[in-house]
Amino acid sequence: MAHTTPHARGGSPIADLHPASFALVMATGIVSIAAQLSNMTRLAVTMLWLNVAFYVALWIFTGLRLARYPQRLHADLYDHGRCVGFFTIVAATCVLGNQFVLVAGMPRVAIGLWLLGIALWGAITYTVFTVLTIKPEKPPLQKGLNGGWLVAVVAAQAVASLGALVAEHLGEQREQALFFSLVMWLGGGMLYIWIISLIFYRYTFLPLDPADLAPPYWINMGAMAISTLAGAMLTSRAPGSPLLAPLAPFLQGMTLLFWATATWWIPLLVALGVWRHVVRRVPLNYDVVYWSAVFPIGMYTVCTYRLSEITEQPWLDGVPDVLVYVAILAWGFAFLGLLRRVLLFLSRGAG
């Protein structure tokens, strides 16, 4: 049986649950944090508890899918286009952990989520890449590769950023947590170089259909934005750290490099979006992968706030002061699309 052929869809929403569904938690969490940093406390808190509900519900749905439709999950694992969606589970866990520190002031919960995120990262990373390496039948590059592959980078950097955040609450284990977070940050940066090289080659040397430019390509920017956030958090922890203090100039320089790369992507992604939806008239119909476009906008907002702090460039605050509203608006449109999808399903069930 060829695992590269997508399995049939249709019927139960649990059977058809996309591996990238946890992008809903990623997007909701980072927009909540952006709102908190913009002093929109009520909105931030509301989105935190809404996100807890999303996170729990998605774990329940995933468990039910594993129990009732294991062959569907197995087929996703062997699908080059969908398997990388499992990395959203790691990123969602760690973004939720960030919320519990920054919005709820509950670092112990965040530490538990960080440890869970580490375990999930190890299991998913080495399962996915082992399967993709040894599977006998593989698709051509233009069929198997998409921007969603960079969620593997986002997962690593989400672990790094949360680790740097909770390190202050780990007492004698502070330096070990910072060391681990530094290694994850550097490894995630290297992984970005490997994958983005293939994506850039895909963009510029192979035919590109409008349908190929799905929202996950915004992760091109989002992966660099969360790398910026993790670098900024590590830089802020450098004072008093025997490990990070000597590396402070390197940390800040690499963080600026990541932010500059994220910024470079934005005009190109906007232009390609205009070409896709305006010139080639691809409709904007709700899909779970649209949360993968909301997340980078929120993450760029948050990472720019943090970059402004570590570089002592307060004029940079003007960027996130505007983008936070764009992120909230994008989240709102995606959420309305989700509600509409749920109501349509319920109405069909009632009928």
Largest sheet: none
Number of strands: 0
Q: What is the overall shape? A: globular
Q: Which residues form runs of ≥5 with pLDDT under 50?
A: 1-9
Gyration radius from CA atoms, angstroms: 20 Å
Spell the H/E element sequence: HHHHHHHHHHHH
Mean pLDDT: 93
What's the total helix number?
Answer: 12
Approximate strand percentage: under 5%
Oligomeric state: single chain
Proportion in helices: over 70%
N-to-C terminal Cα separation, in Å? 37 Å
Structural class: mainly alpha
Salient structural properties:
351 residues, mainly alpha, globular, disordered N terminus
Structure characterization notes:
With 351 residues, the chain is an all-alpha fold. 72% of the residues lie in helices and 0% in strands. Helix 4 packs parallel to helix 7 and helix 7 packs antiparallel against helix 8. It is globular.
List the helices and strands and how they pair.
Blueprint lengths: L22 H15 L3 H28 L1 H8 L9 H16 L4 H28 L6 H4 L6 H16 L7 H32 L13 H18 L11 H32 L11 H21 L6 H33 L1
Helix pairs in contact: 1-2, 1-4, 1-11, 1-12, 2-3, 2-4, 4-5, 4-7, 5-7, 7-8, 7-9, 8-9, 9-10, 9-11, 10-11, 11-12
Give a short overview.
The protein is built from twelve helices and no strands. It has helices at residues 23-37, 41-68, 70-77, 87-102, 107-134, 141-144, 151-166, 174-205, 219-236, 248-279, 291-311, 318-350.
